[in-house]
Prior knowledge:
- This protein is an alpha/beta fold.
- Among the domains are: about 110 residues, CATH 2.40.50.140; about 160 residues, 3-Layer(aba) Sandwich (Rossmann fold); about 160 residues, P-loop containing nucleotide triphosphate hydrolases (Rossmann fold, 3-Layer(aba) Sandwich), CATH 3.40.50.300.
- About 35% of the residues lie in helices and about 20% in strands.
- The protein has 23 helices and 23 strands.
- It has a seven-stranded parallel beta sheet with strand order 13-14-10-15-16-9-17, with helices on both faces.
- The longest helix is centred in the first third of the chain and has 31 residues.
- The C terminus is likely disordered.
Amino acid sequence: xxxxxxxxxxxxxxxxxxxxxxxxxxxxxxxxxxxxxxxxxxxxxxxxxxxxxxxxxxxxxxxxxxxxxxxxxxxxxxxxxxxxxxxxxxxxxxxxxxxxxxxxxxxxxxxxxxxxxxxxxxxxxxxxxxxxxxxxxxxxxxxxxxxxxxxxxxxxxxxxxxxxxxxxxxxxxxxxxxxxxxxxxxxxxxxxxxxxxxxxxxxxxxxxxxxxxxxxxxxxxxxxxxxxxxxxxxxxxxxxxxxxxxxxxxxxxxxxxxxxxxxxxxxxxxxxxxxxxxxxxxxxxxxxxxxxxxxxxxxxxxxxxxxxxxxxxxxxxxxxxxxxxxxxxxxxxxxxxxxxxxxxxxxxxxxxxxxxxxxxxxxxxxxxxxxxxxxxxxxxxxxxxxxxxxxxxxxxxxxxxxxxxxxxxxxxxxxxxxxxxxxxxxxxxxxxxxxxxxxxxxxxxxxxxxxxxxxxxxxxxxxxxxxxxxxxxxxxxxxxxxxxxxxxxxxxxxxxxxxxxxxxxxxxxxxxxxxxxxxxxxxxxxxxxxxxxxxxxxxxxxxxxxxxxxxxxxxxxxxxxxxxxxxxxxxxxxxxxxxxxxxxxxxxxxxxxxxxxxxxxxxxxxxxxxxxxxxxxxxxxxxxxxxxxxxxxxxxxxxxxxxxxxxxxxxxxxxxxxxxxxxxxxxxxxxxxxxxxxxxxxxxxxxxxxxx
Length: 692
């Protein structure tokens, strides 16, 4: 019954269920797993007289007076103010652009407020505090006098109404719920049962019970996250792959033709890949490497190992721009090589390719050695003669189902996955438990570290002046914006608007181009070709440049509204410069509206090390945002955190390995609730996991 659609729950119905569905809550069980984002101890509110500047508090106070005014800069921008007191002192609160609040802020009404206390004009103030109005029912056992959960609200619900809804659902359905974790596993790991955990995660009697519930539910998430990974790894070991000829003239000739020597890290990783490809079991390896560390050269060598063994290779990139760049670079490098008395046959396949039918025929007949493309390689009608290696670049840009499709086009082909988002090794081993991991942690010799500087918006002219100096020297520059059109709500200058202003104003003496994702592919290619051929000095762009663009003459990048980007994304963008022989500079423009934004700017200025940057990004943003919503499993980690609960994650992984070694199909009676939960959570893995 708990798997029934949420609209059947008393108090919801078809209309209100839409709000929950927008939050990813479709069933009654998913409502039970809709966890609070924080708690307020309303058994002991802070008094206003005890508040200290710079600290975060929860207070209960009455409204004395309220008013509203509009910004003199922008008449549509409202500022709502209220004065409140609690008998010990007074505080002012201000909310920006929430004009509807004025109707609720009646003198004498009681409120609970949560926020950071600041000092403004010699008085205490909370800016944009979270709030909840009390309706006089102070004896309400769910909302006052206890530890109270605070949720991210679906549209149309208040905290009070949502708490009552969840409490009623718990009372009705907890007695009927099956615990997916076997009793012996819970006993070994000192975990409370599911019903008790769900009750205490929502409405804990004290913080100790909340911590026990949090630990149990975190373990469950880690455990169910690990099961598909372990199952995939176990199933692969049972299937034979292709044993490649790893030493051969083709790969040796390629290394000899390079204008540089492989770094020690590249040579080490290549040896690991060759060892895998020589074995009769299929390779499934993750190749991590910082921006510009030379992953593509190693991947190309892996492709040549497949080709010299008489097989085909496929190289999939997340965007057409990156696929074209890989094609141009790799085909140029391979054009000097001969194999069995002929040139290597390399082809490009993207979305609306006019040569599609011809490419399909040549792939099927074996007349193409290496195909480079986008998700167009996943088309059902595309087939290979003898595919034996698949390279997937920036795998997190593809959905789970997409990544699973390409390997099915070969006979248990080797798979090499590349990412320029370095992940701390211990975390990577656990999160990519079905993959072996290689790391390139060394940049090519002679690479000059990029200098990064941070400017407030008022000092942007200094950044422009630095960029113009680079352009006068004959180098090129980028200016990156987070949006295409101007967003008044976020007060961010859009790429289109700023392109027009910069072209006719600040950079009128230079040739300025514009590129963004809404341009047609041909238009994007034309702009990039102009920039590559030095027909443009400055390129105004959105984050379409984040992955893979390689212009050696570009030495300067300005990133506007830098606080709108994640730290790893900023590092990826910065990696588009500094790829040639000249010193390069990245200029971050941000007024740092939060301590989190300030931490990101500092990390960028202090370090060029991608692994250090990624660790800081994980700390600041948390794993779900860091890896993206499409990354397998991590979107499911609603409560668990790999960074702070590493030991619990490791324990969950060990339990998953031991359980599946004993019962790989989860056929035992005690494991049926777990099997049901697993397939419910990850239905796309049913075929891969070989669960009977």
